[in-house]
Amino acid sequence: MSAPTQAGAEAMRALFAPKSIALVGATDKSGWSLSTFDNLRNHGFSGPVHLVNPRTEVVHGQRAHRSLSEIGEPVDMAYVMVPTPAVLPVLREGAGLGIRSYVVLTAGFGETGPEGRRREEEILDFARENGLTVLGPNGNGYINATAGTTPYGLPVPAPLVAGPVGVVLQSGALASSILAFAQARYVGLSLLTSMGNETMVSVTDVIDYLVDDPATKVIALFLESVRQPERFARAARRAARAGKPIVALKIGSSSIASHTAQAHTGALVGDDRVIDAAFRQLGVVRVRSLEDLIITSGLLAQVGRIDGRRIGVVTPSGGACEIIADRAEQEGLELPPFAPETVARLKEIVPGFATVQNPLDVTGYVVVDRTLLGRALEVVADDPGIDAVMLLSDLPRVPPADPALTLAHFGATAQRIRDANRPVMVAGNILTDITEFGRRVQEETGFPYVAGGIEHAMTAIGAAVRWSRDLPEAARPAPPAPVTRPVVHGPASGVWTEYRASQLLGDNGIPVVPSALAATEDEAVAAAGRFGYPVVLKAVADGLGHKSDIGGVRLGLGGADEVRQAHHEVCAAMRERGLTGIGTLVQPQRSGGVELLVGVVRDPAWGLTLAVGLGGVWVEVLRDSALRLLPAGADDIRRALGELRGARLLDGARGTEPADLDKVAEVIARIAELARGLGPGLESLEVNPLLVQGSRVEALDALITWH
User: Fold this and answer.
1) How close are the terminal C-alpha atoms of the chain, in Å?
2) What's residue 652's pLDDT?
């Protein structure tokens, strides 16, 4: 099927804010029909809802029209529930009446096979030709809680809580569960959309709409696939520039084509690590559960940006302090000691038997002094070494004997949170539903969103800190494509082994170790003499990728006799395997330093992906790597180097010479730009190892695979 047409902003606004709706195919025999009608009537839609059924005069207790034409007044949107063959005729009739927006509940299209795909293509072609906007087919519709517009085919329980989180789902079956969980945790939604087949309106279209929607602060996505990566990236960058977090639960994985296995990089860039890299660069928060999708979105909607990972924790529980400390370490958060002035002020507040430290347990004395937790929060929020505060405080579940006292207590704490000098994130001990009385407390006192349970709250806080850290990079426009074409000698096809690949690197300004090609023993000895001993001798043959598999790498050769013997043995091994174009490559021996791998592989969805990691023999043993989608600048590459488990080796561990990380990042950035400039014919480019010794950075081996 051809790519969906990008829906314009005006068309999307019209789709999500109709003043009148026609339910086409309405019938008392359908639960979808009844649910859609009840949702519109029970959740605040004030416009007319017209029912269309050619065979029944009364549906859902209301007069039904035989066709759209019989309605006799303007209709802004048609919700289509007719059998599959009748969908296109409904669109034809509606287009003639000036109806531009459609939600198609009906299934039986592209998800069913070739005939269904043909029908879906017909709908797309007709919609494009007539300027229609179609959500679906095979989708339940949407819930615009902000406007009280709910053309949605499954029951929407009351009360429908409007709020700042927009939800976009590629799964209709999970929509009701996500809605129910959001309502249970009192996370208000601006819009929930079930995408269906995305024949025309795509996830990216809805993201763009939500970026512009003033009622939406956070965008939550459930994704089975990212169908248009380039458009998704543009929309994500728009969201970053608008300061709106995108939180995504992405299932499935990205795979690398099997023919990239020639390069070690293929073992490092696989599964859904590419998705992780893409989302991070685009400022998209990735979560691993439906609960975290909603809880993290709710927290981000409440606190927004957090400029640092130093968290001060205030709790009434020593056990909770231990759990939080463990989870903070896992999330990469710091719990720094309180400043001396903070300690002094806290000692004046907490009981004498309390230990003043971060995390802070104010003890069970909160039962006696209900102001204790709030007053401690106020002090911790003033600490100059803290970027944000986590407050452990559950909402009450049942009304007490005197609700006024509870409301006054939570109101005072809410005011302290509003007045705090740092962002304050509130978490409950465990994940439970927020009860009717808990909602009343929040509504009447302005008490902020409460993240459900320590486990999920710490996940959300870690995500908020990382999103805040990555936001400036994500908000930058994507770098332009290279303006100059690299120097390439010879046809770009097949596999280029070390000699040709290294020539390409050197011709394009990337430092490579000197080397000489030798067809005979005498030529190998002569080359070794020019370089000076010791030398390295490597096998060269057509299509030979992994030289070590045949014993084709000889190190530390100290004289002419050793070179002759090595050349003879290596060439004999290649002849035994029937290889052609055989010879050897002679290079000066390099020792010391740190060996890195720098590889670029073309992901089938996201394009060129850069992997940096420990190289040489360690690449297959440790698989210690960091990924970036290209383009990536030197600053981002330097950050990637810092993410490696072996990063300390570059810092000069155990007295070794520290690497010039700026120079290393610059050379890797040049390799990445070379890969981009080689165009769509490049499948993979790998430098392994890239030797780093102080400020000397040099490619010792390379491999290039073309489509």
Assistant:
1) 24
2) 80
Q: Tell how far CA 215 is from the center of its chain.
A: 23
- Report pTM: 0.90
List Cβ neighbours of 8 (8 Å cut-off, separation of 6 or more). none
Structure-token match 């994704």, residue found: 223
29 contacts: CB under 8 Å, gap ≥ 6: none
Look at residue 399 and give its three-state secondary structure: coil
The pLDDT tens digits for 236-253 are 999 999 999 999 999 875
pLDDT, residue 260, reads: 40
Which is nearest to 612 in space by CA: 630, 594, 624?
624
pLDDT greater than 80 at residue 42: yes
Strand partners, 193: 142, 168
pLDDT at residue 162 is higher than 80: yes
Give 386's contacts (C-beta < 8 A, 6+ positions apart): 310, 311, 312, 336, 338, 380, 422
Q: Are 496 and 703 in contact (CB under 8 A)?
A: yes
- The per-residue pLDDT for range 275-308, each reduced to its tens digit, is 999 999 999 999 999 999 999 999 999 999 999 9
Transcribe 557-585 into DSSP letters. E-SHHHHHHHHHHHHHHHHHTT--S-EEE
Q: Are residues 106 and 84 in contact, defined by beta-carbon separation less than 8 angstroms?
A: yes
Three-state helix/strand/coil letters over 643-701: CCCCHHHHCCHHHCCCCCHHHHHHHHHHHHHHHHHCCCCEEEEEEEEEEEECCEEEECC
For the record, the structure tokens of 412 come out as 């005072």
Residue 99: strand, helix, or coil: coil
Q: How far apart are CA 370 and CA 357, in angstroms?
A: 20
Q: Structure tokens of 590? A: 């390099």
Token pair of 19 as six digits: 């003043």
Q: Encode burial over 682-701: b for 16+ CB neighbours within 10 A, e otherwise.
A: bbbbbbbbbbbbeeebbbbb
pLDDT of residue 580: 85
For residue 258, the model assigns a pLDDT of 36
Question: Residues in the chain, how many?
Answer: 707
Can you tell me whether residue 34 is helix, strand or coil? helix
* pLDDT, tens only, 634-661: 999 999 999 988 888 898 866 678 999 9
